[in-house]
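Kindly inspect this one:
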Amino acid sequence: MEKLWKYIICSSAFVLAAMVLAAAYTSSSRSEGTISVTGLGETQFASDMIVVEGEFSVKNDAAADGYIELENQRKRVLSHLVSNGVSEESISFNMPTAREVFESVYVDGKYIGETSNGFILRQSFIVESMEVDAVEAASRKLPSLMAEGIMVEVYEPMYYFTKLESVKHDLIGAAAADARARAELMATNAGSSLGKLISSRAGVFQITAATGDEEFSAGGSFNLSSRVKKARVTVRAEFKVKNN
């Protein structure tokens, strides 16, 4: 009988200890939690590289004569750009192309075939330069060559920033710091203290015009048409919090 009481006492002690540990775990769980926040990093910068593309064309009855004419126009386009402050090293011309054009022939209103109507020759060019101001000004003046009979077409400039990777790194750091500041503010206002970072994840980069209402894209956006741009990224972070 004495041994039986010993077993009963030991069993009761084990049960009581388990109850105490369970209560302590429950109390600990209630005193700790997590908080999720989104931080924002944003900055504005001016592009330091410009790319301008264009092309010019001639029409001639003979391909050989058309090529000579096209070559003279190429020299004139090059001269125009260089004389307006664009370095010759930043200008490149692609291989010219030639296409024979045909005209439909009718006799007494009946189609009888086609006849050659000469050749159209084209040559495209591209300017890639860090001389943004000079290339901008020179490209705007290129259409004036049409007054000389040069049929030139210039496309809208594209603007790039060669130090974009460093901007991205800085933005991620700023967004992460903003996320922590937001989490600390929320925790303090709730009477809690902020704990360790559990996880964090950066969103996609959105590079838009500095002004305007350009829409963001789920896959990220990269504006090329604006010289002055705005870059932004978000960081989603989760922290531990403890109730005070």
Summary: Residues 50 and 137 are 12 Å apart (CA to CA).
